């Protein structure tokens, strides 16, 4: 059984903790594959006939303030959903290369909300998340290269600084220690082979 299959089963076995919404969270360092895992997890749930919304904190975070989005997401989305009302949040617009206020996003109550991104599994959500999955590539250099391949070479310096910030955050928050499931992504060797997880 894959970790995504296990996460789907565990989530459906547990009672909702965000009002009637089951909240699944995917956290871990940048470049570890959280977005990919969240999509696979959602596909497993949809195959079981469960309505799912996936939300990424990348739509809110900025280089200069990677974790400060939480209070407005909590107030604008999680708290209304817990009361059975739609949530609403203003996204970050990166279209001009620098962050500015973007469009508003409405999130209707749904059976399952999967939230993914760096710091999504922070201690502030532990009483509302039904399942927390921690995803990691252990080698920091490999994570950086994966993130650069995703975001482009021009982002390398900022991504390295982001890694420093997330390392500090995770040491303080101890997110991985609270995870229900752990997915270690195999690291790719120069010849294309993979180290075992």
Description:
By secondary structure, the chain is of the alpha/beta class. The chain has one domain (3-184): P-loop containing nucleotide triphosphate hydrolases (Rossmann fold, 3-Layer(aba) Sandwich). The protein is 35% helix and 21% strand. It has 5 helices and 7 strands. The chain has helices spanning 3-13, 34-47, 70-82, 140-151, 156-173; strands at 22-27, 52-56, 87-93, 100-107, 112-116, 131-136, 181-184. The strands form 2 sheets. The chain has a 5-stranded parallel beta sheet, with helices on one face. β3 and β4 (100-107) form a beta hairpin. α1 packs across α2. It is globular and about 40 Å long. Mean pLDDT is 90; it is low at 188-197.
Write the layout of secondary structure elements.
Blueprint: H1 3-13, E1 22-27, H2 34-47, E2 52-56, H3 70-82, E3 87-93, E4 100-107, E5 112-116, E6 131-136, H4 140-151, H5 156-173, E7 181-184
Parallel strand pairs: 1-5, 1-6, 2-5, 6-7
Antiparallel strand pairs: 3-4
Helix pairs in contact: 1-2, 4-5
Looking at the structure, the CATH topology is Rossmann fold
Number of domains: 1
Q: N-to-C terminal Cα separation, in Å?
A: 15 Å
Average pLDDT metric: 90
Radius of gyration: 17 Å
Q: Tell me the CATH superfamily.
A: P-loop containing nucleotide triphosphate hydrolases
* CATH architecture name: 3-Layer(aba) Sandwich
Broad CATH class:
Alpha Beta
Helix count, per DSSP?
5
SS content category: alpha/beta
Helical fraction equals: 25-40%
Q: Which percent band covers the strand fraction?
A: 15-25%
């Amino acid at each position: 059984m894959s970790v995504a299959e296990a996460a789907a089963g565990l989530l459906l076995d547990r009672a909702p903790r965000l009002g009637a919404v089951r909240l699944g969270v995917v956290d871990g360092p940048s470049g570890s594959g959280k977005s990919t895992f969240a999509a696979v997890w959602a596909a497993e749930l949809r195959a079981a006939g469960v309505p799912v919304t996936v939300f990424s904190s990348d739509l809110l975070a900025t280089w200069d303030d990677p974790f400060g989005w939480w209070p407005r997401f909590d107030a604008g989305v999680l708290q209304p959903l817990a009361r059975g009302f739609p949530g609403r949040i203003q996204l970050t617009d990166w279209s001009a290369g620098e962050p500015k206020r973007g469009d508003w996003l409405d999130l209707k109550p749904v059976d399952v909300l999967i939230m993914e991104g760096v710091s999504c599994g922070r201690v502030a959500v532990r009483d509302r998340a039904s399942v927390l999955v921690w995803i990691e590539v252990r080698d920091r250099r490999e994570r950086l290269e994966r993130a650069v391949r995703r975001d482009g070479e021009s982002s390398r310096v900022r991504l390295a600084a982001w890694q420093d910030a997330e390392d500090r955050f995770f040491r303080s928050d101890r997110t991985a220690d609270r995870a229900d499931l752990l997915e270690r992504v195999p690291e790719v060797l120069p010849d294309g082979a993979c180290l075992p997880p």
